[in-house]
Amino acid sequence: MTVSAHFRLAILGLFCCFSLTFGAAARSRAVVMGWVEDAVTHERLGWANVMLAEAECAITTADDGSFCFCDIPTGVFTLRASRIGYREAMRMIAVSDHDTLKLTVLLGDAPLQLGEVKIITQSDSHGAVHHDPVVELRGGDLQRQLAPTIAATVENEPGVAQRSMGPAPARPVLHGLGGDRLLMLEDGLPTGDLSASSADHAVAIEPMTAERIEVTRGPETLLDGPGVLGGVINVKRGSIVRVLPRQATGAITIQSESVNKGLAGGLNGTLPLGSWVLRADGSRRSTDDMQTPDGTLHNTSICTGNGALGVSLIKPWGVLGAAANLYESKYGIPGGFVGAHPNGVSIELNRRRYELLGEWRPTGALLRRVEAEYAFAHYYHAEFESNGDLGMEFGVLSDHFNGRADLGTHAIFDEGVVGIQVERSNYATGGLTFTPASTDLRAAAYLYEKKRLGAVLLQGSVRHDWRSIEPEEERESFFIGLIHKRVFDGVSASVGAELPTAPGWIAGTTVTRSWRAPTIEELFSEGPHLAAYSYELGNPSLATEHGWGTEFYIRPISGRLQGRAAIFHNTFDGFIFPRNTGHFSSSRADLYEYRYEGQDAEFWGAECAASYAVMKYILVRGNTSYVHGELLDRGSPLPMIPPLIGSVGLEVHLDDWTLSTDLHGAAAQERVDEFEEPTASWARLDAAIQWQRTTPGLLHSVVLSGVNITNTEYRNHLSRVKSVMPESGTNVKLLYRVYL
User: Fold this and answer.
1) pLDDT digits (tens, 9 = 90+) for 353-375
2) How many CA atoms lie within 13 A of 727 on its CB side?
3) Spatial CA neighbour of 418 closest among 367, 455, 379
4) Fewer Cβ within 10 Å of end Cβ, the chain: N or C?
5) How far, in Å, CA of 291 to CA of 524, rounded?
């Protein structure tokens, strides 16, 4: 048996211990039931989503607006209710042993009525403060912004920019930070792809099958990783169902785009069978080359397929579940400029991921939930030159285990989380590169706590990580030095405080100490990376990267005004990045050498997002963000820093219709690295019309939108292909989704 097989067997053993031990315990039984109603007409609303956040269980109301969570654990939960065309409602509820809690949830009679939303209960509510994500994209907002990639879907959110080498491999950047400093998760687990390592690698998540997308910053990010000063983006797909639905549900989606002759379709369904639940989803997306105001950007077509199947056993004591997911994609990277392949590069990738879940719902006050998750991913990625020759290939086998316990009141704290993570990755490359096959082993323990002192909310987290990166063989490289095993360990920590200030306002601050070990690519890369237009040279002697991050924010908590404003400052000791040496490689005279190095760096900036209901049915909104990044030793700008960006918009709701228009723009970016091109300022006009209507047994939603409707020529500063072509021209998109 190989070392990898021993590791996988050990992880499965841990998973079984969590699941079987907890599954044998006795549980109490409690019920939460009620109706979702229009706050003015008291019409009961079908197709509303109701969720108990801490239990990670959700249900869709029946045609008569009713919902019922049966056999749930006792404790304190955040109940959230939402529906397309209505503003989300949220309130803490307390469920006692053998209790039946009946609720009437009132959603605002108009989508823009931003006053306090009431939830009327027939039982007393007691609970702790619930921490929301900084950004949550769901429902109608998600449908209006749905794009071929996660990055394009969230690019209009405050503080977010889009790094790209064409439309397919785009990845989000937040506060100027990308890569694995901005962690991408799928259902709370690592994606298993290589999108964080290079700009040409796509994120292996299809946004069409996403239920919602969340962005988290602050102390809670240390539950997922140690060096994520940028934050965490979690795409919720719900492959493993955690609450027993009352009836079969599903949705069918069709979307088309004019700018690339794109067509996409997807479906999902959930079927209860006694205590068992089956869930399946699938999608297919195909586009031609992207059209711009200056012509066609060749070799940018996309063909993507995605499918998942999950099964859950849901009992009063908890959940046992398993899921399998397949993601395949073929896409192009354009060429035609200095450092690029003349005719571009084509990439084929596939990822297979398998998940196991065990969740125990205890009855005591100390433990709210104990959970064990295991995921195995097989990822393969090949890059082909225009003549069909293989340039290079990547393969990664990864195992990930996460065991955590959600705590109720304990010691001096109101609630908390304690857990461990273990991950192993077997990494290999082929083709023209000499990067060695390596094994990456990681282990971590973390603790998160929350406490309220009067009106002040305090949060804190601490995490210890250990990482070992071992090449298949040690050797001396003429180009990068001694390739040998490296072992790292370090501590991350974060604290936050939030308190009311002026009436209707909350102010908060977070301070984070991050720790990040160099990756396999940063240590051992050696050879041409044609799709990235670079000859990459690692640095086997790189030290760990340490960062200090502070953020101060204010936000309103009620009334017509909603939003958030923040300023931030991040400093790094040994910030690791690939620096253009300015020299062509002696081995490949058509490629610049990029050498990984660690230097002290600083990022600071601000962001603001706000919406205001000027009338009952009219909303004005806007956001803006700015990032300044520089190398402290040299006083020179860091490469690929987004300029000042922002948008202003208007949204009008008329019965079943939502009309919106937004003007997006960016200032010129002239503060650039010596090998980087400046970009000019630009402005782009978008508009959308959404219609939604309920018919017996169905909910229909149609979105007709136009992006860059004036066909403005503009260039994204974070695009590696901006010297060849501008961004896309006028794009008319049509989306139809029906909920069954």
Assistant:
1) 999 999 998 877 788 889 999 99
2) 26
3) 367
4) N
5) 38
